[in-house]
Write a structure and sequence with these properties.
The protein is of the alpha/beta class. The protein has three helices and four strands, in the order βαββαβα.
């Protein structure tokens, strides 16, 4: 499987996702949006992973890459690609699908889980 991750800041890389991809023999490549790297073409991946960052989906005016990124997420979902969002990535997926996204009153911790391709 060809996995492509979108990274927004230097300190929010694929980490455990990269380890999992390697353990399962999947190709993993990424785009560093904080370095103005171009977004991938839809045909170049089977699974899109949208990483986190300290910004929020409401900060689109400050981050010009966010608009095209939202469009890529919409296109990936419409094309039936797998899409996974981590933190900011989850916000972006929700916004791309038309959901209202707003700041939480408090942070929520989520336990670790192991991913499986088995369904």
């Amino acid at each position: 499987m060809r996995i492509h991750y979108l990274q927004h800041v230097p300190f929010e890389g694929p980490a455990a996702i990269a380890e999992w991809a390697q353990e399962h023999g999947h190709e993993l490549v990424g785009t560093r949006l904080d370095r103005n790297e171009p977004l991938p073409a839809l045909r170049d991946f089977d699974w899109l992973v949208v990483m986190g960052g300290p910004m929020g989906v409401g900060d689109r005016d400050r981050y010009p890459w966010m608009g095209p990124e939202l469009e890529l997420i919409r296109e990936a979902i419409a094309a039936g690609r797998r899409v996974l969002g981590v933190c900011l990535g989850a916000q972006l997926i929700a916004a791309a699908l038309g959901a209202r996204v707003y700041p939480a009153r408090r942070s929520v911790s989520v336990p670790s889980y192991r991913a499986s391709c088995g369904g």
